[in-house]
Amino acid sequence: MEQKDATRAIRDQQKEIEQSLPFADRQDFDDADRGYLGSVGSGMIKDADGETVWDADSYGFIAGDAPDTVNPSLWRQSTLVAKHGLFEVVEGLYQVRGFDLSNVSFVETDHGVIVIDPLISKETATAAVDLYRKHRGDRPVVAVIFTHSHIDHFGGVLGVVSKDDVASGRVQIIAPADFTAEAVAENVYAGTAMGRRAGYMYGAALARGPKGQVGAGLGQTTSTGQAGIVVPTLSIEATGEKHTVDGLEVEFQMAPGTEAPAEMHFYFPKYRAVCMAENATHTLHNLLTLRGALVRNPHVWSKYLTEAIERFGGEADVLFTSHHWPTWGNARIVEFLGLQRDLYGYLHDQTLRMLNQGLTGAEIAEEIQLPPVLENAWHARGYYGSVSHNVKAIYQRYMGWFDGNPARLWPHPPKASAERHVKAMGGIDQVVALARTAFDEGDFRWAATLLDYAVFTDDQHAAARSLYADTLEQLAYGSENGTWRNFFLSGATELREGNFGTPTTTNAPEIVAQLTAEQLLDSIAIAVDGPSAWDLDLALDITFSDLDRNFRVTLRNGVLVYVEKAAAPDTAGASLTLTKSRLLGLLAGDAESEGMQLAGDAGVLRTLMSALVKGDPNFNIVTP
């Protein structure tokens, strides 16, 4: 791939950023290095087959001054996040950082250790535990705490404990209420599309380097090893709950509907340490992640941070989270939480104020200004979330996609709109010429808009593709936000080299196996090709033998409906008896192996299966 240098416009922008932000403030570097005990000899972690699932060494180039091709603020963040190893937070509380997108924490109890958030992959979690034990001895795991329902906080659990450990009662698995349902649901209904976009968001196909992927702001990237899940044995239901684990008291605070649908904070009085999960990290977080998700609620997010200040702010001497580095000192903790609270509260309240004055989401994103204190707080900068896309998310949460202008109520879809724009501007060559002028003037946003029209009119137009890739590359070089940079560079990569598909997937068998019967049937309904099923009228009884549950499934008018009720063979075209895992196998294409019983008309099942279509993990994004 031919990568270009930064243009003068980008170089000038980088210099302005260096002059406008408080780069002389080195407190974060002191905090990120504090308590360092050591790391592994190589930052490369491999699976059982010898495949690399994590490579911290690939970020070894991130040192010294920022190159012209990386926003200096993002370079600073990536320099901090790329640090890896075991760190002592306080005596008895340790973190392994830089072994995955997230951190794993170890809290020592009377006879063992509690593990908090065991990363994404079994392999990275195992490496982290080994490093901890190298320095702290072979303490047994007595409990695992999942702070919330995202995969980077539970996926590596089988590298920390075995299912037998949990089944025997030797190890507790502690998580917030509704954890399992939320953990398995988020990436199922829209999982294929989310996975494809996540490849862009984390720069999964990008080379590491000053002109490539330098991180994602929240962490460097995601590991690619074996993900799993273990169902919690203790569900935390209410704020104020206290539990003692092997002699260590833990006080919990619920925070649902914030960064994750199921999330909680907690406090260890012995260590005067509060864990804020992922709700107060060293970045402005996402209210709508670019991979796609439901819009998060900044209003309750800010309220739970206020509650945390009230509950723990008078006691805590150290604050640690599932990403980044800790904050020490009670006064600093209260200030940090207060600014994080004000950040989400300000974005929420001011967006609503401005939308009530008639501004649209896009207009608010251009107009809104953070208070100087927030603008100059490094932990409030937009490395992972951004003010721009978070404001649009808030607008979407309250007002939806339509901005009220009737001309935008029924626009043409992208390709049809592009063709009309290109025709109106005098043809594709003229559009490319206009884009070249915009590029040369440093107006990369307008150049990208014009070239989007050109490529969606003729995706084989060589000059349009080439200039579009160059434009996205310059936008990437200027981006402070790690995920924006990855999106721009991923688009440039596909324009130059072709569609790279979905490099990683989160639908690990261990996780998919935790789908409830209802979620599994929902996933079938979503897969129905509606038009091809318009004229079908069928009924099938499905009995899950391992759950002792029966569902009547009907398909009419292209809609699959299920109702839990006793089997009635006389009114069903067919009856299917199998385990939940066997149905998963059937949906994956295994129709021949044993393990299911089918009575009645076999054609009913064949017809239903023929009406299902799989998602396309290789759909186009930057081209039509």
Quickly describe the structure.
The protein is of the alpha+beta class. Strand 14, helix 8 and strand 15 form a beta-alpha-beta unit. The radius of gyration is 26 Å and the shape is globular.
- What does the main sheet amount to? 8 strands, mixed
> How many distinct beta strands?
21
Radius of gyration: 26 Å
The chain-level mean pLDDT equals 96
Roughly how many Å apart are the termini? 21 Å
State the CATH superfamily name of the largest domain: Metallo-beta-lactamase domain
How many distinct folded domains? 3
By CATH, the topology of the largest domain is Metallo-beta-lactamase, Chain A
Total count of helical runs of at least 4 residues: 21
Judging from the principal axes of the Cα atoms, what is the shape?
globular
Unreliable parts: none
Strand order of the largest sheet: 1-4-5-6-7-8-9-10
Give the helix/strand class. Answer: alpha+beta
Helix percentage = 25-40%
What would you say this structure looks like, in words?
The chain has 21 helices and 21 strands. It has three domains: 8-389, Metallo-beta-lactamase, Chain A (4-Layer Sandwich); 408-497, Serine Threonine Protein Phosphatase 5, Tetratricopeptide repeat (Alpha Horseshoe), CATH 1.25.40.880; 515-610, SCP2 sterol-binding domain (Nonspecific Lipid-transfer Protein, Chain A), CATH 3.30.1050.10. It is 38% helix and 16% strand. The chain is globular, with a radius of gyration of 26 Å. Strand 13 and strand 14 form a beta hairpin. With 624 residues, the chain is of the alpha+beta class. The two termini are 21 Å apart.
